[in-house]
Design a protein that fits this description.
321 residues; alpha/beta; Rossmann fold; 2 domains; six-stranded parallel beta sheet; 11 helices; oxidoreductase
């Protein structure tokens, strides 16, 4: 592959909202073709003659990789590589590089925003103001929804990588005590509590771990029942970490103080989801937007360009296969 390579970005609109500087990526290739989105039956045709495929979430399976004879490099515009058949790419001699750590500030602040919104009952007060309830109050203030201070409370973290560490620092700035849980399938550590010991202690639990066979439904009905009455649950990691029906049931039963999720098991949720029912109290759902600050998306552009340059120089960066 050379600097004159042809690169095709298959789902460019998932990254750029018209607010990014794409010069670093354009300068990395001789030709850069941008497609807002690509359906499965368009991918092979669009990648013909291309040495580089860039994808955020478009699937690049074994059949697709085999049908693209000139393909040498796949750049994933995200951290997760589950949309690429890594084994097939390896067999075909196609390198795969991802992006890492680009969204840490954005996701960390989103996690704390969700926790603060639950603790201060922000959605409930906003709803009541729109309904005119404050306007009709006999007093200057309207305090129908109990507010919780974070200071002095205990935050449990599952996943203590770069992102989990950033969330821990923000929580400590609010005066919270932070403790970490042991993830299944990981070697035990003295500074990680088993889940059954962690859950009864925490006033809030945030998830920042990958979705693996060991962590699927990590938080199920049993785990939710172990949490303190009134505790908060925040998930900005992956939808499959939480049993969504069990969470809906726990919220309806009033066991939890509230929950917030930026992720669902199917995205977008075209086929419905238990957490989208209108009768679930104290639930906030955001549309997988935690990562999407302009700054984070610009970092992805920079990392894609760095990964391409590294591959060209024989010193691949962030290679995953």
């Amino acid at each position: 592959m050379s600097n004159a390579s042809r690169a095709v970005f298959l789902d460019y609109a998932s990254l750029d909202l018209g607010d990014l500087d794409m010069a670093p990526l354009r300068e990395a290739f001789g030709e850069l073709i941008l497609h807002d989105s690509s359906t499965p039956d368009q991918v092979v045709e669009r990648l013909q003659g291309a040495q580089v495929a860039i994808s955020n979430k478009v699937q690049l399976d074994a059949r697709t990789i085999a049908a693209c004879a000139e393909l040498e490099l796949i750049l994933v515009a995200a951290t997760g590589t589950n949309n690429v058949d890594l084994g097939a790419a390896r067999e075909q001699g196609v390198s795969v590089c991802n992006c890492q750590g680009y969204g840490t500030p954005s996701v960390a602040q989103h996690s704390l925003m969700l926790l603060l919104a639950l603790a201060t009952r922000l959605p409930d007060y906003q709803r009541d103001i729109r309904a005119g309830r404050w306007q009709q109050s006999p007093m200057f203030c309207f305090l129908d929804h109990p507010i919780v201070e974070l200071e002095g409370k205990t935050l449990g973290l599952l996943g203590h990588g770069e992102l989990g560490g950033a969330v821990a620092r923000l929580a400590e700035a609010f005066g919270m005590r932070v403790i970490f849980g042991q993830l299944p399938g990981r070697p035990p550590r003295a500074d990680r509590l088993p889940l059954d010991e962690l859950l009864p202690q925490v006033d809030a639990l945030t998830l920042h771990c990958p979705l693996t066979p060991e962590t699927r439904n990590l938080i199920d009905a049993r785990e939710l029942a172990l949490m303190k009455p009134g505790a908060f649950l925040i998930n900005t990691a992956r939808g499959g970490l939480v049993n969504e029906q069990a969470l809906a049931d726990a919220l309806r039963a009033g066991h939890l103080g509230g929950a917030a999720t930026d992720v669902l098991t199917e995205e977008p949720p075209r086929n419905g989801n238990p957490l989208l029912a209108e009768d679930i109290p104290r639930l906030i759902v955001t549309p997988h937007s935690a990562w999407g600050s302009r700054e984070a998306r610009q970092r992805i552009v920079g990392q894609l360009a760095e990964n391409a340059a590294g591959f060209l120089s024989g010193q691949a960066k962030r290679q995953v296969n």
